[in-house]
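Supplementary Note 3. Input sequence used for the single-chain structure prediction.
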Amino acid sequence: LAVIAAAGLGKTRVLVGGDGDRGALHDTAGRVTLMVFPTLDMIGQAAGRYRAGRGPGDPPGFVLRGRAAKREDDQGLMCTYADWAEGVVKARGRVTELMCGSGCPEADGCPYLEQQHFLKALAKSGDGVVIFAAHPFAWAPVASGDVEPDLVIIDEQPADLGVDQFILGPATMHAVSLRKNMEGWDAAHQIIEAIRNDGPLDPAWYAPARDVTEAWITRDLKKRLKAAKWTDRDNKFEGWGPKDPTTYVALLAIVEALAAMGSTSVPPNVVITEDGIHLSVVRDLYHQDAAFGYLDATADPALATNMFGPMEFVHSRVDRNAHVTQVLGVNPT
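The predicted structure, written as discrete structure tokens, is reproduced below.
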């Protein structure tokens, strides 16, 4: 369900309450709700209003902080190695497995891991919980996938419109061409050349290209993590940091997108420029089995459907009470 109503009409207030009044989410005992927002300020405001109206038997409100977010006591970040973790996520690695459980000296007493354990306990209690978090959590597992929400609500349009963009650079394309006589890499090379020449594409290339690229990324990521010095907190894993993501991930994303479409010709969302091969793809919401709600003041139904899938749209129209006077001429001063 999507609710489109002008800013200030109280879309969020209906759910979380305000001025000590109850909202609809106070009546969700036994259910896990995930409500996501574009900014930390909005998260804090919504959680504060919800907690102010909470009574006996109502689900607790919980602010879920990302690894790069400030701690509640403002003493550093939730994860000491947040930059490293972001690089691992971009390389499709599991941070809890490859970092937290593989020698991180900050694992004991880590506020991010403690937050996960506490949230898991709340979700399993049977009392329910209302989780307030940032937009990215709508496309990511909660508490390493151990907490599954019954209801997901997205407040306001995501800044990136739910679209991932990848660029496969010339250096990586050249590296693939040097391995073209090796198993799997030959298929990857054929895909790249077909895109460069506007097709045709053979779906038989996709599985071997995907497997060899995925194995390469995993092996290289583990190698970099093993070589990293935990004391060097400025080590951004060259080639894996958030400002310089590896283009092998872009190659894998392109192959997976083509395979999902069963493409025999180059689709419109794959474009080649001087910078390389570009892919734009709409992310799937992670919590597919949850009920879904979307609140926005200016949502375009076609764009919203493209981001989130088919929905029922409810419009709350308002008549603007304004008198406009246009003044023509030069400034008299």
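The longest strand covers residues 276-282. The first helix runs from residue 11 to 16.
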